C-alpha cells in the first residue's frame, strides 16, 4: 500500500480521485439522460413532464430491486479482490448475473401488464395515467436489460474499470438524445410520438449499450462457466449476496417508497406542485452528484481495505471523504440557489413554478450537507459489511419523521412543497448524524464477509 489514500487494484494503484472521477462523469451523464428527457418533454407538454416524472419514480423503485443483488455483488467482489482471491470474485459475479436476470424477467412481465394499475394507485389524474402508462409499460418491458447492465457495471467498478462504464454512459446519452429528437420534434415529417417515443428511445439506447458492456466485460475480466461455479460454493455466495443485498437495497427501497408516498401527498396539492417537484429534483440531482460519486468510490476502496484487513486506513479514509463531500455539496447548493431563476427558466416560463422552485433551492443549502453524511458514510458501512444498522435507522427516520412531517406541514398546514422540503431536511440530518456515530463506534470492523475465507483457495479443476 503506497499511502492511506491509495490502494492496489490488480496491478495498478487506485486513489479516491482515480476511482471517483469516472464514476462522477458516469452518474452525471446518467442523470443528464433523465434531465434530457424532462427538458425535451417540457417543449412538448408540462403534463407530459409530470406523468413521466412519476413513472420514472416507479422505475427508480423497481430498479432498486436489482440492488438486492448488485449491492452485495460490488461489496463481495471488492472484499475478495482486497483479499487477493480473484477467482472467488468471479464466482460471485456469475451467481449474481443469474439471480438478477431472473428477477429482471419477472419485473419486466409485471410492469408491462400492470403499469396502468400502479399509476392509478398513485392517484394521478386520468390524463396523466394515460401519458405515464405510455412510458412505463415500454421501459418496464425491458427492465431485464437494466438488470444485466447493473450487474456487470457493479463488477467492473469493483475491479477499478470505472472509465469503461463512463464511456458506455456517454454513448447511451448520445443515442438517447438523438432518439428523443426524432420522436418528440418529428423532423423530416416523422410522427411525434411523445411519451411512448421517449420510452422507446431510452430502451433502445440501453439495449445497445448492454451489448457493448458485455463485450467489455469479456475483454477485461472474462466469464467462468456456471458448471465450475457449481463445483464450489454457489449457495454460500447466494447467502452472502442476499445477506448484504437485502438490507443494503432495503434502505434504498424504503427511501424510494417513502418518496412515492410523499409524491402522493404532492398530488393532493396540485399538478403544478408536482411539476415543480420534478424540475427541482432534476436540478438537485446535479448538486448531490458529487456526494454520490464519492460514496460509490468509497465503497470500492473501503471494500478493498476491509478485505485486506487494513481497518485503520479504512476508518480514516471515510472521515476524509466525508469532509470533502460536505464541503463540495454545500458549495454546489449555494451556487444553484444563486442561479435558481435561470435554471428553472430552462424548463418552464411558469412564474409560480420558478418562484416556488427558487425557495426550494434555498432550502437545499441546508439539506445537501445532511444528505452527504448518508451517501458517503452509508456506502462505507455497507462496504465493511455493516448493512443492517443503516436500513433500520432509515426505515425509522423516513417513515417516522419524513412522511409525517411532509403531510403535517405540506398538506395539513398548507405549506405545500416548502413543508415537504423541511421534512426532507429533518430526515437527512437525523439519519446522517446516526450514520456518523455508527462509523465512529467501529462496530463495522468485525462485519467483513471474507475475513474468515482462505485467500489461498485454488481454482476448481476443469471438468
Automatic annotation (TrEMBL):
Its main location: membrane. The keyword Transmembrane applies. The chain crosses the membrane at residues 16-36, 48-81, 93-118, 138-156, 168-190, 196-218, 253-271, 283-303, 324-347, 353-377, 389-409, 415-434. GO terms for cellular component: plasma membrane. GO terms for molecular function: antiporter activity; xenobiotic transmembrane transporter activity. CDD domains: MATE_like_8. It is a multi-pass membrane protein. InterPro entries: MATE_fam, MdtK-like, YsiQ. Keywords: Cell membrane, Membrane, Transmembrane, Transmembrane helix, Transport. The keyword Cell membrane applies. It is found in: Cell membrane. Belongs to the multi antimicrobial extrusion (MATE) (TC 2.A.66.1) family. PANTHER family: MULTIDRUG AND TOXIN EFFLUX PROTEIN MATE FAMILY, VIRULENCE FACTOR MVIN. This is Putative transporter YisQ. It comes from Gottfriedia solisilvae.
